[in-house]
Amino acid sequence: MLKLYNTLTRRLEIFTPLQNNKVGLYVCGPTVYDRAHLGNARPYTVFDVLVRLLRKTYEVTYVRNITDIDDKIINASLRTGDSIETITHKTTAFFHADMRALGNLSPTIEPKATEHVHEMIKMIEQLLKQGVAYAQNNHVLFHVPSFPKYGALSGCNCEEILAGARIEVAPYKKDPTDFVLWKPSTPEQPGWESPWGRGRPGWHIECSAMSFKHLGASFDIHAGGRDLIFPHHENEIAQSTAVHGAGTFAKYWMHNGILLVNGEKMSKSLGNFITIQDLLSQAHGEVIRFALLSTHYRQPLDWTNETLIQAKASLNRLYTAMEGFKDESSSQVDGSIIDALQDDLNTPLAIARLHELAREANKINDPSAKKEVQAKIKASGAFLGLLQSSSETWFQTGSPQDLNSEMIETLIIKRRVARENKDFKIADQIRLSLEEAGILLLDTPQGTTWRRK
Ligand SMILES: [Zn+2]
Predict the structure, then answer these.
(1) If you measure from the C-alpha of residue 86 to the centroid of ligand 1, how many angstroms do you get, rounded to a whole number?
(2) Residues 276, 37: contact at Cβ < 8 Å?
(3) How many CA atoms lie within 13 A of 71 on its CB side?
(4) pTM
(5) C-alpha 349 to ligand 1 mean position (Å)
(6) How many Å lie between the centroid of ligand 1 and the Cα of residue 47?
(7) Do residues 31 and 114 touch, judged by C-beta distance below 8 A?
(8) Percentage above 70 pLDDT, the chain
(9) 257 within 8 A of 300, measured Cβ to Cβ
């Protein structure tokens, strides 16, 4: 029985899908103007585990959008001189590479905002017809006071939030809480023809239109980072339920906790901004994934200088227990691990169980009994997107930061010995592992030299 914490009801609920064996999940995707950072990595990784768990029982449609029209992208284009298309294409490709490195599965559908502008315009027209939106100075705004349930998700007292106002006050707004559905574009800015002149959509309407197109008016789970609850998700609810009626839209709302870096909020101005690419130059993607899953998703995650080191040490322990295991035997995922995940995605408990199994494997002398436990570790690790290398490969490659010159030289000697013994398979394996870790070998008449890629 799967239990999930629903932000909307503020309690743990037994998950029951809207349709028998099908689940629709929407996760707010990245705005593609810059390299994805650690704060982005967290939701995509924890909700990747959710998808894997749901797929055990249900047919899951996992939608994660790409926001490829946004003022941040326009500003990045002005700053760098690159065209908007260049920026969005390049950043989307980087994002996909980062997700692959973290072991995250691709979503079933990855809609792009720019390919759904027609749907957004249609939805805005419906909001105008309902009388909950108004057009003013080529803008269209959602009128928040016309939607009495506004604030139900965040539990926000909107007047209070306004006092701390980070909300844009503009002369064309009837109420300061009103938010933009459509805004005009200058001739240089990207824009689409609409009944309100040439312009572009606001961010919130993008997710409402794309989730409706791909999952329908009502779907099971909407997820994202805590920072999206207000105003983004609150606004999505207002737009979608104003159009499709009360009781529609997402049934369960899931949010991961905030990410801190050495106890502080991560921000460019504090100089503690970490991109996924930065981390991948320090550690294998699996180490980062392991670190992200070691804290329960609803807890704040404090990323310190020791986080990667600890994650690496833990993975080393698990891979040590897998020594000598060849993939010939298969097993089921450990029951306690499934139980832990079904209890609101308790990944730290699941990982603790992996360690328990590893200790068990280390203690067993009987080869076939040991293999059985190892097979269970392998299957359970796979379920979490972990432990997919062989123990040998793991310890040969490690991560780029671990490969100092001494280790590289040692591997080069091992390879030479293997070649002398005509063990070309092993020799090739060493060369490939080094290549994966960013080290290129050059065979010369004077011997083998190496350089970093
Ligand atoms: Zn969204």
Answers:
(1) 23
(2) yes
(3) 8
(4) 0.86
(5) 30
(6) 14
(7) no
(8) 95
(9) yes
Residue 229 CA to ligand 1 centre (angstroms): 10
pLDDT tens figures, 28-81: 999 999 999 999 999 999 999 999 999 999 999 999 999 999 999 999 999 999
Q: How far is ligand 1, taken at its centre, from the CA of residue 211, in Å?
A: 9
CA of 204 relative to ligand 1 center, distance in Å: 6
Confidence of residue 158 (pLDDT cuts 50, 70, 90): low
Q: CA end-to-end span of the chain, whole Å?
A: 48
Closest by CA to 326, choosing from 374, 384, 363, is 374
Mean of all residue pLDDT scores within the chain:
92
The per-residue pLDDT for range 354-399, each reduced to its tens digit, is: 999 999 999 999 999 999 999 999 999 999 999 999 998 898 875 5
User: 120 CA to middle of ligand 1, Å?
Assistant: 13
Residue 379 C-alpha to ligand 1 middle, in angstroms?
Answer: 33
Q: Encode pLDDT of 400-441 as tens digits.
A: 455 667 677 878 888 888 888 888 888 887 888 777 767 889
Q: Is the dihedral of CA 65, 66, 69, 73 positive or negative?
A: positive
DSSP 292-304: HHTS-TTS-EEE-
Q: How far is the CA of 35 from the centre of ligand 1 (A)?
A: 18
At 439, give phi and psi (nearest 5°): -115, 125
Distance in Å, CA 233 to ligand 1 centroid: 7
Residue 74 Cα to ligand 1 middle (Å): 19
Specify the residue for token string 């020791």.
306
Report d(CA 68, CA 55) in Å as an integer: 29
Per the listing, tokens 């390299």 go with 35
User: What is the C-alpha to C-alpha distance for residues 412 and 448, in angstroms, rounded to an integer?
Assistant: 7
Q: Is the dihedral of CA 65, 68, 70, 72 positive or negative?
A: positive
As given in the structure block, the two tokens for residue 409 are 């030289």
Tens of pLDDT, residues 278-300: 999 889 999 999 999 999 999 99
The alpha carbon of 124 and the centre of ligand 1 are apart by a number of angstroms equal to 16
Query: Distance, CA 217 to ligand 1 centroid (Å)?
Result: 15
Q: How far is the CA of 207 from the centre of ligand 1 (A)?
A: 5
Cα angle 21-297-288, degrees, rounded to a multiple of 5:
105
Query: Ligand 1 centre and the CA of 222: distance in Å?
Result: 9
Tokens 């009987």 belong to residue: 366
